[in-house]
Amino acid sequence: MQADVLGITLLVGSFFAFLAIRVPVAFALGASSVLTAGYLDLPLMIVVQQMTKGLDSFSLMAIPFFILAGQIMGIGGISQRMIAMSNVIVGRIRGGLAMVNIMASMFFGGISGSSVADTSSIGSILIPMMKKNGYDGDYSVAVTITSSVQGVIIPPSHNVIIYALAAGWVTVTIDGISKQFSLSIGKLFLAGVIPGVFLGIMLMVISFYLAVKRNYPKEEAVEFREGVRRIVAGFFGLLTAVIIIGGVISGVFTATESAAIAVAYAFLVTSLVYREINRRSLRIILSESLKTLAIVAALITTSSAFGYLMTRLDIPRLATESLITLTDNRYVVFLIVNAVLLMLGMIMDMAPLILITTPILLPVVAHFGMDPHHFGIIMMLNLGMGLLTPPVGSTLFVGCAIGRVRIEDMVRPLIPFYVTMFVALMLITYIPQIAMWLPGMISK
Asked: Would you say residue 130 lies in a domain?
């Protein structure tokens, strides 16, 4: 089948042209889809039908509940409890506040599922505290923003559900047999547990090395009774993630049902146990959740039409064949795919990239034998690293604003952390058991 070069150029070229003139991503996807449909003499109703089809998914209903639960726990005092609990566990290590920062992000990431939310909640408390205790401002920001990437890997993450949705659009042909991907949300959640914790441990190692080198302080020991009180208070918050993950894995709840139950539980804990949710904060929670949901829904609808046209123009097959022609070494192909995702993550936000690149890159890695659940975690980490890099590094911008550090002054301090994250990415890519061991154990 001959490639329609003009159609592909129109679809992809117009999309990047719209981005260049600062058209929002969702509108750029929709406009380029309409233009390409016109070129292909397709009725515009097909574009509308594909946009509607993008939202026609039961699993997709979990996303608003995950967003709402994250907002409730973020505003409802969970971040303070995570910090206090983490301080009991790792505070006495050299550079203790950095360790607390990373561990708190590990815990909070399993609730919010958002790197930016993690940085906003944890960072607004710990960055000023670290600076006051003698830590350099750039080090404080670097620790906070890099550890927040755990939030997009450790379950539950609404970005993982977006990936599962995008993967469901993909039809791949292997050995002459065509099949459509059907991913398990439970397996995706499980696949993110060990990589997320592994990333946190590696960040702790580099943070500890720098803390010793710069002679940062330790935290004072917490009295036993106070330590128990802090751990119990934090446990109530962590139970939200346990409900979501445990319910999905055990089969008691679907992802959507567990997310809805988590919202109810989060509201009860923050209003009755922590007592930090009032009428005013409830309005803020609902408003912020609605804004985030509107953005996600707009991206899903327009990217669904965009993905349909990519498939019609045979872009996924052409991308696979191009890489096979370039090299038949699976390790080189995986490296190229990682490089592409890292570069794209620097210029575009996470959700649209998941929706756009999954239909193109998933058939490539599947052809070389990579499990789609494994690839989902690799994509999350790649694009999470993109949140730390300009020009579209939203997590970097939030961290710098909180720490009052100029973005250009963060380049050098971030290098050791970025290298550490890249090493973690390579290990997770080439040692699939890191991601797939836990799903494999449960499925047995």
From this structure: yes
Residue 62's identity, in one-letter code, is A
Rounded-to-5 percentages of helix, strand, coil across the chain: 80, 0, 20
Residue 111: pLDDT band with limits 50, 70, 90: low
Closest CA to 361 of 143, 159, 189, 170: 170
> What percent of the chain is predicted at pLDDT more than 70?
93
Q: Is the peptide bond preceding residue 156 cis, with omega within 30 degrees of 0?
A: yes
- Into how many domains does the chain fold? 1
Neighbours of 208 (CB within 10 A): 19
pLDDT interval class at 428 (50, 70, 90): very high
* Model confidence, pTM: 0.82
> Hey, what amino acid is at 347?
I
- Residue 68 in any domain: the answer is yes
Can you read off the two tokens belonging to residue 252? 């008691």
107 contacts: CB under 8 Å, gap ≥ 6: 82, 85, 86, 234, 237, 238
Half-sphere exposure of 141 (CA within 13 A, CB side): 25
Amino acid 436: pLDDT: 93
Is residue 119 in some structural domain?
A: yes
Is 368 buried (19+), middle (13-18) or exposed (0-12) by CB count in 10 A?
middle
pLDDT digits (tens, 9 = 90+) for 196-220: 999 999 999 999 999 999 999 888 8
Question: Residue 180 is inside which H or E element, if any?
Answer: strand 177-180
H or E element that contains 411 = helix 411-430
353-365, pLDDT tens digit by residue?
888 888 889 988 9
Dump pLDDT digits (tens) for 271-320.
888 888 878 888 888 888 888 888 888 888 888 888 888 888 888 778 77
Could you give the C-alpha distances from 99 to 140, 196, 197, 404, in angstroms and in order? 11, 15, 13, 21
In a domain, 2, yes or no: no
Q: Which residues contact 93 (CB under 8 A, 6 or more apart)?
A: 99, 208, 218
Domain coverage including residue 324: 59-299+316-443
CA 342 to chain centre: 13
Question: What is the spatial distance between Cα 21 and Cα 378, in angstroms, rounded to a whole number?
Answer: 31
